[in-house]
Amino acid sequence: MDETKKYLYLVTHGVESPERSASPFFLATTAALMDHESTMVFTATASGLLKKGVAETIRMKTGGDGATLDFFINQAREAGVRFYVCAPSLDLVGCTVEDLIEIDGVVGGTALNEMAGEADVVISF
């Protein structure tokens, strides 16, 4: 039997890089579907991806066709991926926790470092 691993995805790019926004959700979903613990932490401008109403406006392909980011977010949620936001990044993107979709928590630098130290795999976007 395979051992469950902890995957941590650190997401730093936000709405300014729509072409990069789906990949971390896709990979985190894949890890969760492989029965691994899968956690995403959003920092810097990535926290803006979780603002209510934003994901529905971001498309993966230019020209307005293709899936929207909320499709990938919903897949991740259904697979059991956990979402955390870095507290200082909320001010950076001009929002509060209440402005965000459902998340699992808010973390600071200490908690993020502990999560990274406990993870088997850390991937940064």
TrEMBL record:
This is DsrE family protein. It comes from Sulfobacillus acidophilus (strain ATCC 700253 / DSM 10332 / NAL). It comes from the Bacteria. InterPro entries: DsrEFH-like, Sulphur_relay_DsrE/F-like.
